[in-house]
């Protein structure tokens, strides 16, 4: 075998060195040591491109930081506004001049066409409680004062209950956002004595003072309102309905019984006492007077203004003495024959 076959082929470098001495030295760098264009281009133009790239990057970062700063400032400003509003409304539920003006005009309007309307002193008695703070207010009956109660408790929760579905729908139509429900009352004014006798017979069973009205079987209990109504701890309850001025009218015995149970069934986290202000209008009538004595109790009567009775009822685990509603016998209780 020839000795040439025992060696590797000559490299390009060695070939270039064996060229004729007359070849210029520059020729061996053009082809033999030439780098790819991708590597030589940065070598020639690299410093300028690098400066431009660095400048572009700095400008981009600056623009991004400025945009982010503006966005964050706007977001903080937007979210800060509503957080300060509730703090102000808690201290001042309704501006005092507005509160006083509403109460003034409601009390000075002549009531000759509707004698069942509340007088100025009666309105003031309720307004004094509502003025203290926004609260959970439950009102039985749609009356001339309906919009007044809603306005005075504008930052609280106000719910109306009435026997007339048509009046409820009209109220909601003209006042969007107002909360009102219709109820079918099963009692009658003429059944007062029979109803009191029945409630006493069931005082430790269906008609007990502390219970969940949603599941109550007591004939005097209002148990067909929306479920969430029974979950609310009502601070103030006004009984000014349903109708009760003729024998076949439903009367307000069910509303008074329901108010008494709601007040006593409130549960405070960690225990302790909770009070409910209950106002009964036209307490001079028999059903209202007897029902209040039976289920709200004379020992809880704070004041009587005109024909408005004001009771403050505390929550309880078992009701009054002996498991009943009252510690003392009702002062005007109906005599029930055995």
UniProtKB/TrEMBL annotation:
InterPro entries on file: IRX15/GXM/AGM (IPR006514)
Domain of life per record: Eukaryota
Record bears the keyword Protein transport: no
Main location, first listed in the record: Golgi
Membrane topology category: Single-pass membrane protein
Localization per Swiss-Prot or TrEMBL: Golgi apparatus membrane
Gene Ontology annotations of biological process type: xylan biosynthetic process
Family annotation (Pfam families): IRX15_IRX15L_GXM (PF21729)
Keyword Zinc-finger appears in the UniProt entry: no
Cellular component terms per the entry's GO annotation: Golgi membrane
Chain segments carrying region Disordered: 1-21
UniProt keywords, alphabetically: Membrane, Transmembrane, Transmembrane helix
Record protein name field: Polysaccharide biosynthesis domain-containing protein
């Amino acid at each position: 075998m020839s000795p040439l076959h025992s060696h590797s082929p000559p490299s390009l470098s060695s070939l270039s060195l064996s060229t004729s001495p007359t070849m210029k030295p520059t020729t061996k760098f053009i082809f033999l040591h030439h780098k790819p264009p991708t590597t030589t281009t940065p070598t020639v133009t690299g410093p300028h491109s690098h400066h431009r790239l660095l400048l572009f990057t700095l400008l981009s970062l600056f623009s991004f930081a400025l945009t982010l700063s503006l966005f964050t400032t706007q977001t903080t400003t937007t979210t800060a506004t509503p957080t300060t509003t509730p703090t102000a409304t808690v201290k001042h539920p309704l501006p005092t001049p507005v509160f006083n003006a509403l109460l003034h005009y409601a009390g000075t309007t002549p009531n000759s066409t509707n004698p069942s309307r509340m007088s100025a002193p009666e309105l003031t008695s309720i307004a004094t409680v509502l003025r203290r703070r926004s609260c959970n207010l439950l009102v039985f009956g749609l009356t001339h004062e309906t919009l007044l109660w809603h306005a005075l408790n504008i930052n609280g929760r106000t719910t109306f209950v009435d026997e007339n579905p048509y009046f409820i729908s009209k109220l909601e139509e003209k006042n969007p956002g107002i909360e009102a429900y219709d109820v079918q009352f099963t009692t009658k004014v003429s059944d007062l004595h029979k109803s009191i006798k029945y409630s006493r017979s069931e005082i430790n069973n269906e008609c007990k003072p502390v219970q969940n009205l949603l599941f109550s079987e007591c004939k005097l209990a209002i148990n067909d309102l929306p479920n969430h109504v029974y979950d609310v701890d009502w601070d103030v309850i006004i009984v000014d309905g349903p109708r009760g001025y003729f024998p076949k009218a439903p009367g307000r015995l069910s509303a008074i019984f329901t108010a008494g149970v709601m007040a006593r069934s409130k549960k405070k986290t960690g225990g302790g006492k909770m009070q409910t202000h209950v106002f009964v209008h036209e307490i001079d009538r028999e059903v209202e007077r007897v029902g209040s004595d039976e289920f709200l109790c004379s020992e809880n009567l704070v004041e009587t203004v005109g024909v408005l009775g004001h009771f403050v009822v505390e929550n309880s685990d078992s009701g009054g003495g002996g498991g009943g509603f009252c510690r003392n016998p009702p002062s005007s209780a109906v005599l029930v024959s055995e």
